Amino acid sequence: MRPPFSRLVLASLTLLACNTNPESATKDAPVVAGKTDAPETKGAPPADAKVAPPPPSTETKTAGDPATPPPGDAKVPEDAKTDAAATAGEAAPPAPAADPAAAAEANKKLLDEAKAKKTSDTRAKKALEEAEKGGATVRELAESANARGEALFDEPERAAAFFTWAKDKDTTYPEPVFNLAKQSANAGEVPQTVELLKEVSKRGGKKLLKQVGFDPTFEIVKDDAEVQKLIK
Fold it and tell me: Which one has a higher pLDDT value, 208 or 97?
């Protein structure tokens, strides 16, 4: 058994050693039960936990990356473009040219039908309209209507309707005006007859005016001063 002095010296040395080397003191320090310095381990998430979807990629596509083009930029096959262009530029086939001889013959039949006294007035006017659409000239139409008026001369009202139609259709044709002048003279209408004879003169009907001097129809106006000037 060590004396008390020796124990005091030993304790002092031990205390001095602890202050000089704390690491060794720590190593020699007793371990507290229930406390460990093991690192914390994170466990895996529960199996039923919902994982949020990743955010949309902001990666910029390059020219070589395959990508689905938007609906407006869908490429049309070249053959489809060609067919569409051909269809758009394709013009309707031209109508076959009418046979001039056949058209002329058809118009002649219509004009002859209009002239015929047996044809009704309504049908005659319709035939004239059809002939005009078929290409008949205004002179041909006027001659046909005038001829019908002459055929109906004994029926003044019906005849006058076709003389007037012919006069208005061809403003250079003197015959229907001369026939209207005859009707006016027969009705004893001197002023109207003189005016119509003047119109005949304007249309170049000099040969027709020569009839006024010897045709008894114009007996009531042949001595009129203005008519005398016209027939000279």
Answer: 208
Distance in angstroms (rounded) separating the CA atoms of residues 134 and 54: 81
DSSP structure string for the chain: ---HHHHHHHHHHHHHHHHH-HHHHHHHSPPPTT---PPP-PPPPPTTPPPPPPPPP-PPP-TTS--PPPGGGPPPPHHHHHHHHHHHHPPPPPPPPP-HHHHHHHHHHHHHHHH-TTS-HHHHHHHHHHHHHTT--HHHHHHHHHHHHHHTTTSHHHHHHHHHHHHHH-TT--HHHHHHHHHHHHTT-HHHHHHHHHHHHHTT-HHHHGGGGT-GGGTTTTT-HHHHHHH-
Does the pLDDT value for residue 174 go beyond 80?
yes
Instruction: Give the whole-angstrom CA distance, residue 43 versus residue 49.
Output: 13
